[in-house]
Design brief:
Layout: H1 12-34, H2 57-68, E1 72-77, H3 83-96, E2 104-109, H4 124-143, H5 148-154, E3 158-162, E4 174-178, H6 186-193, E5 201-206, H7 223-230, E6 236-241, H8 250-270
Parallel strand pairs: 1-5, 1-6, 2-3, 2-4, 4-5
Helix pairs in contact: 3-4
């Protein structure tokens, strides 16, 4: 006698439905894998951004230049004038606005305090975290939450990079903020400037008086040479911040005034 095997296969229709379910599951998993991984914290939206008005005349000059659409701007001047704060504030405001073409902020800085960062513990990301702290603090102030930088980073809106790793990159649809630019050699400045891609803008923040490169005989700040070149470009806007723009504290203002007087006196005595 022939033994009849039990037909364990699904009917054609059920097979088709099963395959479709599996396919949908794979698609959902694939989509999830390529979506930015946001933690349990709420995603940051433009409505979460606090509103800040310019506190000084030169801050207002910058706000006006930004509103005008200037895309090659230098904020130069003494410490405590809010250069980096203003630049990051306006950049975040624009990136979070879906009506604008920019989708990310690139914060660039030189690790000059330890030009070779190899001696710091951890991997590259952990080594660079120390240089992210000022921007984390600014984001905390802008949104009133300590995790603001992390959420923006997870959503793909902001990233930090050292000049040590920037060569060969190109930044399209981005707002680039180069901070502490006085600590970049001209070669580094030149490398950063030539990374600016399509539909991008760049802002430079710094003060030639504050360079740390003077401590290293092999390095010379390229900030003044860069300004000499950039002033011949019609797109370049340079805003000078002085002691009247200091918003950090009266103590900082008094100290910087005293330091400038000392440096001017010392320079005159050398002549």
């Amino acid at each position: 006698m022939k033994q009849h095997k039990e037909n364990t296969s699904l009917p054609t229709r059920k097979k088709s439905m099963a395959r479709k379910q599996v396919a949908n599951t794979i698609i959902d998993v694939t989509k999830e894998a390529h979506m930015p991984k946001v933690s349990n914290g709420l995603k940051i939206k433009i409505d979460d951004l606090r509103t800040f008005e310019p506190l000084t005349d030169n801050q207002k000059l910058f706000f006006d230049a930004y509103k005008r659409g200037d895309y090659f701007v230098a904020l130069h001047g003494v410490a405590g004038t809010g250069k980096t704060f203003c630049a990051l504030y306006k950049a975040i405001e624009e990136v979070l606005d879906k009506a604008n073409p920019f989708n990310k902020i690139i914060v660039v800085r030189s690790a000059v305090q330890s030009r070779e960062i190899g001696h710091l513990p951890g991997d590259v990301n952990e080594k660079m975290e120390i240089y992210e702290q000022p921007y984390r603090q600014i984001c905390e102030t802008l949104f009133g939450r300590k995790d603001a930088w992390d959420r923006l980073e997870e959503q793909g809106h902001i990233t930090f990079i050292s000049t040590s790793f920037i060569r060969g990159m190109s930044f399209d649809d981005a707002i680039i903020i180069v901070d502490e630019m006085q600590n970049l050699t001209f070669e580094e400045i030149d490398t950063v400037m030539t990374r600016v891609g399509y539909r991008s803008k760049i802002m430079w923040c710094g003060d030639y008086r504050q360079t740390d490169l003077n401590k290293r005989k092999s390095d010379v700040s390229g900030i003044l040479k860069f300004f000499d070149i950039a002033q011949h470009m019609s797109a370049f806007t340079r805003i000078e911040f002085d002691v009247d723009d200091i918003v950090r504290s009266s103590l900082v203002k008094d100290y910087i005034l005293a330091k400038i007087r000392y440096e001017d006196y010392d320079e005159n005595n050398k002549k």
